[in-house]
Design brief:
The protein has about 140 residues and is mostly helical. It has helices spanning about 5-15, 20-35, 35-50, 55-85, 95-120, 130-140; strands spanning about 50, 125.
Length: about 140
């Protein structure tokens, strides 16, 4: 299998995220279903490349980013949410918010690189119409 590169995935993810209601849909998956947005984006990417993964491979992808998500991204999102709620009490809120958003974006990109590294170690099946995202969203 050809190795996927993180730059191609990042570009795909940015385009998809900005289309229509995709941002709201992905954030709903994250906030209402506890799904990882970067993993969703990767699964959409694999679907677009006609590459299917197994449930076991999906589980491995979830495991490879779980600690980073829990220890780094979720606390940063929580801090950003706290500051937003209390912005009137925060001096220089706009600059702090901008810096936090920039840091979060860099960390999201790092997590995407982790996913690409992991998926490049897997044997993926070529399939005419894979539905990797559906498998992930169906998992409770």
């Amino acid at each position: 299998m050809n190795l996927l590169n993180s730059r191609g995935f990042w570009q795909f993810a940015c385009r998809l995220y900005s289309k229509g209601d995709m941002q709201a849909r992905l954030l709903d998956y994250q906030n209402q279903q506890g799904k990882n947005v970067n993993l969703c984006l990767l699964l959409y990417y694999l679907d677009s490349l006609n590459l299917a993964i197994s449930q076991t491979q999906l589980n491995k992808l979830e495991q490879c980013i779980s600690e980073f998500d829990q220890q780094v991204l979720q606390p940063l999102r929580a801090a950003r949410g706290y500051l937003k709620t209390n912005h009137t009490e925060i001096a220089d809120y706009a600059a702090i918010r901008k810096d936090l958003l920039s840091a979060e974006l860099k960390l999201e990109k790092q997590q995407q690189e982790m996913l690409i590294d992991a998926v490049n170690c897997m044997d993926l099946a070529k399939q005419a119409a894979p539905h990797n995202i559906g498998m992930y969203l169906a998992n409770a």
